[in-house]
Fold this protein.
Amino acid sequence: MRNFIRRFSAVPVALLAVGLLAGPAAANHDRPSPGAPGIGDRLFPTLGNGGYDARHYTLSLRYPTAERVQTVVGVLTMDAKATKSLSRFNLDFDGFAISAVWVDGRSAAFSVQDEELVITPRKPLRDGERFTATVNYISGPYLYTPDFDPNNPVGLLPFGWFTTQDGSVTAGQPDLSHTIYPVNDHTADKATYSFVIDVPAGTTAAANGVLTSRRTSGGRTVWRYEMRQPMASQLIQVAVGQLDIIDQGRSRGVPLRDVVASTIADDPPVQAGLSHTDEHMEYMTSFVGRYPFDVYGILAADELFAYALETQTLSLHPGFVVDETQFPPEFAQPVLVHELAHQWFGDDLALAEWSDLWLSEGHATWYEGHYADEVFAIGWVDRMHAAYEEANQLRADFGPVARPSGNDFLTLFSNNVYDGGGLVLYALHNRVGERRFYEIERTWAQRFSGQSPSTWDFILHAAKVSRDPGVIPFLARWVFGDTVPPMPGHPDWVSPPATEAAAATARSSAARSLEVARLIKR
């Protein structure tokens, strides 16, 4: 829209004339009114909030004991800017309870309604005004017990704030970070973060970003971390428990540090599995350029769950993924590359809305698959051929690649956005050629660094960089079409028409993860 606005220089004159004729309406525009309870996401209508832009969060947590399950006392401070005149505004929250709220140091009225913390400051906030909201609350991790049931893949998919054998971790994707802390819980409103984590002495705390201090006094230790680059709420990581922080040196100038359950940190197969990050970083930076954050590492939790998650600067993995006796390197290392690739695609470049998930998962699948092909001879083209054959059925089951049909986990995270998203990039690669494709990739990562771009942003960017306006309708058919278009370079590839919609669990990435978990069940 900004490009169109620049083209029509006469529009402001017309708008000014209209404004002069509509004085009372213009005055009403400045009248304080409630902020919207949702940001307007098609799949999650009530997620996020309107009326302000969150700029920085300070999250202070006090863990009273070293137990895995406990009630944690939190203080959330949000620095924000009003984007309209506000009589009240919301934060998303579904933790245990709220005890007090302040706005700019003055106590504010509040209520909690349907996962919405509604805050009414003593005086309205003006459009453009910077303000600080402070919330005292309690929440805490829940007890996760792996449910190894082949008919229920969700039993190995814990999210939110859950326990591990060594303590607890967080996994907010897609809409559960507000069970951990009050937040504008949508990936379109990124902010920087400070973490202050107060734990019993002898307990380790780790979070996104750089460790800035650690002080022990009176039998307790306070850990402080800074996430200096903007982060979407779904990418928060707070890990507490019996953990070792392992310095792994530097790669391309980036400090590497892993956080590993103490019970497995000294195991040689685990150390071997963690030793590849330098080559993975070299691989990714060779394609897409400079790593976007201050630090990177792997969080290896001593627990059985069937996924890995790209929590910013500290990717969450179950311990078996980095144990080369449990999970062969030809499977494990591409997974590690997948989560590292997300640091660019999904983290630094977050999502404008959840329908854009393919931009995150498709890109991570692309680099995962190419790494597997290059290092372990696991054929990428064969994988794309198989994905093409499945494409019409997946679109019938789960919707177009960039328009998922629902927000339940097995629909939103179906293979339609993983291999299906990778297939879109493969089609683009075949149309524009290798050189142009990686020029699109590098400049995409650079141009939108720190932002939350959309599918249309990518389509227009690809057309501009490739100097091929035909890329616009080409990609639009690939991401929004109900059926898969012909694959450039492969006229013989065929995707059979979809039959009656298959059961979601049979085709979901979650079910595939369950098959992997079955191989390593202890």
Q: What stands out?
A: The chain has three domains: 1-144+172-233, 242-348, 354-520.
